[in-house]
Amino acid sequence: MILPIEVHGMFATNAYFYISDKTNSGFLIDPGAEAGRLLHIVNEYGFTIEKILLTHGHFDHMGAATSIRNRLHAPIYMHANGEKYATNPEWNLSRNYGLNIILHDVNYLEDGDEIVSDVDEDFRLKAIAVPGHTTDGVMYYSAKDHAAFVGDTIFKESFGRTDLHGGNEWTLLESIKQKVLTLPDDTILYSGHTEQTTVAEEKSRPWYAQ
Ligand SMILES: [Zn+2]
Q1: Is the pLDDT of residue 151 over 90?
Q2: How far away, in angstroms, is 61 Cα from ligand 1 center?
Q3: Centroid of ligand 1 to alpha carbon of 116 (angstroms)
Q4: Contact of 112 with 127, CB cutoff 8 Å
Q5: Does residue 162 register a pLDDT over 80?
Q6: pLDDT over 70 for what percent of the chain?
Q7: How many whole angstroms from 144 Cα to the centroid of ligand 1?
């Protein structure tokens, strides 16, 4: 099951529950805000959250991660380049909004790492590095479910900003063209801020043509 929840902090961000239908256990991706509401949903559905996965280290994607980790004892994962964002409120942009978000005890992933459920080894996501919006961008991909959680790398009809700390437009476009748009056409792209789209739909955009 993929359950998108739009959470509201300084911005609206899509958090996603990616949960095995067989075990009701799985992962929470990008809990950007509203820890209480997300915990309520966990309770209501009886989910077991094994891991909290971040697509990148911007505060609007990780703002509720610490509270939820403390409550559910689910470890937090992000790409190895995320340490700078996790530990620096200027890099994770929280300081711009009068917040001081710092993550402790993060587990760092490398490109290609598999995140596997403890109770069902067929339930897994692959972390694929997609730098450009930030240096630590990863998408979490399931070939079986034709799904990729892409954060702010690519949106329906647009792509992420590249004018923030660590951003680079050339790098982002390479990540999109080489990593995202080479996934099977029917892959559904679950983004951080827009409604879902597909690889086929985004491939047709003129701005990815050259
Ligand atoms: Zn971002």
Answers
A1: yes
A2: 7
A3: 25
A4: yes
A5: yes
A6: 100
A7: 27
CA of 176 to the centre of ligand 1 (A): 15
Using the mean position of ligand 1's atoms as its centre, give its distance from the Cα of residue 45 in Å.
28
The answer to whether 1 and 42 have CB atoms below 8 angstroms apart is no
**CA distance linking residue 172 with residue 175, whole number of Å:** 5
Specify whether the backbone of 40 is left (phi greater than 0), alpha (psi in -120 to 50) or beta: alpha
Distance 70 CA to ligand 1 centre (A): 24
Please list the alpha-helical segments (H only) found in the chain.
Answer: 35-45, 59-62, 65-72, 83-87, 169-175, 199-203
Please give the CATH architecture assigned to the domain spanning 2-205: 4-Layer Sandwich (3.60)
**How far, in Å, is the centroid of ligand 1 from the Cα of 23?**
31
What is the distance between the alpha carbons of residues 90 and 136, in angstroms, rounded to a whole number? 15
Separation in Å, CA 142 to CA 110, 122, 148, 184, 189:
17, 10, 6, 11, 11
CB-based contacts of 174, cutoff 8 Å, min separation 6 = 132
How far away, in angstroms, is 148 Cα from ligand 1 center?
16
- Distance of CA 13 from the midpoint of ligand 1 (Å): 10
pTM of the entire predicted model: 0.97
Which of 26, 63, 65, 4 has its CA nearest to residue 191? Answer: 4
Residue with tokens 């930030």: 134
Q: DSSP class of residue 21?
A: T
- Domain extents for the chain? 2-205
